[in-house]
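Reposting from the mailing list since nobody answered there.

I have sequence plus structure tokens for a pair of proteins and want to know whether others read the tokens the same way I do. The first protein:
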Amino acid sequence: MAGTIVVGVDGSGTARKAAEVARDLAAALGARLHVVSAFDTDRTEVFGSGSDRWIVSDAGEAEKVARDVAAALAAGELQVTYSSARGKPAEALVREADRLDASMIVVGNRRMQGLGRVLGSVANSVAHSASCDVYIANTYGAD
């Protein structure tokens, strides 16, 4: 297969499980793995004391989540990259997959039952709008 597999993470146990499935798929298929965390706002806060200043932003926090998961998944010869992407999670994943010309997006099946199924889920939105294959990983019980 080769190419790139994109997976979205948000710090939850279900997203972590989907990322582990994506890692295993990428390793088995000889693909690269790209970990994405979405952020929907541009909120930024500055903290400081004296001349020391720290800037905390949604984009920075999203990138930290993606970086931490990517670092935890990296093993052997698997090439793992990460990024943060602005927008709602499903839109951000599809946009990143298009940007990278990915061959697959991996998402978890969280909120695909009950009320979540009626209101929509990231997996449902991605499956209906992706221009590449979508793998929906069973993540029930991960949270």
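The second protein, same order (residues first, tokens after):
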Amino acid sequence: MRLVIVTGMSGAGKTQALKMLEDMGFYCVDNLPIPLIETFAELTLSNQAGIRNAALGIDIRSGEDLSVLNRIFDEWSRNRVPFEILFLDAGDETLIKRYKETRRAHPLAAGGRIDSGIEKERAKLAFLKEVADYIIDTSRLLTKELRQELEKIFVNQESYRNLFITILSFGFKYGIPSDADLVFDVRFLPNPYYSEELRPKTGEEKEVRDYVMQHGTAALFLDKLYDLLEFLIPNYVLEGKNQLVIAIGCTGGKHRSVTIARSVYDRFKSREEFGIKMEHRDIDKDNIRKRMV
């Protein structure tokens, strides 16, 4: 029997997560009144209802009753009730954007600004995030990627760490990514842009990668970068960081940055201590601009 408490920030994907867990065979209940949670847990854990796995959605709509959860969780822990807490989070900018796109009102905004509602909600849910077993930041996750993370935890029984890393290539001429935690400038490497044959290609193609990696400078840089990341990442995991964006930039974001981002991703993609994905923000920007001219 597995009992999962699904909670987190409004707009971070809790409803989607519950639907995905339902597809995975969980009996899901959203926004069950907190005074009924203990009764529900007793019924499911005793197997009287024939439920194998259950997921309970709890969020800010529970209001003042949220404070009761501390007592419930403490009691469950003492009695060794097998429960887990999944906390869905996202950056403030992402949450605001999602609310504006859906034209929904934040439950704590009370007709005011969305950002003030988010601030209040973070304060009220802080204790849940602190005790959560799994924290998934959905700021940069596609729906299918969220499903993959949930399957990793609740279906495949794989070891899971809360840190999710995005390796992001970009072009400096289009601006540094605002959400980058670490930024590396690789404009010192050989530039395929000056080769008419290579200019239309990208760092995802072998000819471009070979050009960037010539003379050994890129390989030496990667060795030093790997050493730095091998030191930093475990410390970020220990700190409890749940989202890390490593941005690698060149001039246009098409050749050198893509090559190095691909190399970093390939180096770390098989690691079990964290989730990882790769994005090329500006790889097609030059082509788009040419079509517009």
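Reply #1 (J.P.):
I read it the same way you do. The radius of gyration is 23 Å.
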